[in-house]
């Protein structure tokens, strides 16, 4: 498939997601980076979003709970180019009932080439990168061209 460029603005749309066993770690991380996160548009799935808003005072656009469709909602936003970054504190040691949804979410984030952090260390690196604060072009699939070729 051919590719094209998508420009990420300095003002990012950031998804914040955490498995149950990682929610407190994400909250602690968000408190540590509250000032940096506050200047961006934040989204979060279900309980994670409510806890983050309550504990940090950050404005969070809520999605459904992950197992109730929030992971798929988030995947849709990524595919529609309405999400720029995903920070997902996931627990690789515990199987969740919605593991297929999580796998699909990680796949769609990879397909659309958005930066993804999966733990505190990678989230720290992502948030403190000089690229985080500036415009940046990322290469994404040229879906419009793909459709033209298929539908002729």
From TrEMBL:
Q: Which residues bind substrate?
A: 19, 23, 45-48, 65-66, 98
EC number(s) of the enzyme?
Answer: 4.2.3.3
Bilayer-spanning residue ranges: none
Q: Which SMART domains match?
A: MGS
How is this protein annotated for GO cellular component? cytosol
Q: Select a single GO molecular function from the record's annotations and give it.
A: methylglyoxal synthase activity
CDD domains noted in UniProt: MGS
- Enzymatic reactions: dihydroxyacetone phosphate = methylglyoxal + phosphate
Which keywords are on file for this protein?
Answer: Lyase
Extract the Gene3D superfamilies matched here.
Methylglyoxal synthase-like domain (3.40.50.1380)
Q: Which domain of life is it from?
A: Bacteria
The family annotation for this protein states: Belongs to the methylglyoxal synthase family.
Function of the protein: Catalyzes the formation of methylglyoxal from dihydroxyacetone phosphate.
Q: Which NCBIfam families match?
A: MGSA, PRK05234.1
Protein name stated in the entry: Methylglyoxal synthase
The UniProt gene name for this protein comes to mgsA
């Amino acid at each position: 498939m051919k590719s094209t460029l998508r420009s990420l603005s300095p003002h990012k749309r950031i998804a914040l997601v955490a498995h149950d066993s990682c929610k407190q770690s994400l909250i602690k991380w968000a408190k540590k980076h509250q000032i940096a996160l506050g200047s961006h548009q934040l989204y979060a799935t279900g309980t994670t979003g409510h806890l983050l808003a309550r504990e940090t005072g950050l404005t969070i656009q809520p999605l459904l709970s992950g197992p109730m469709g929030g992971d798929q909602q988030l995947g849709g936003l990524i595919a529609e180019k309405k999400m720029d970054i995903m920070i997902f504190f996931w627990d690789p040691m515990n199987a969740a009932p919605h593991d297929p949804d999580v796998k699909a979410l990680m796949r769609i984030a990879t397909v659309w080439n958005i930066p993804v952090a999966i733990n505190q260390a990678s989230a720290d690196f992502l948030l403190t990168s000089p690229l985080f604060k500036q415009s940046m072009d990322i290469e994404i699939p040229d879906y419009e061209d793909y459709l033209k070729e298929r539908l002729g």
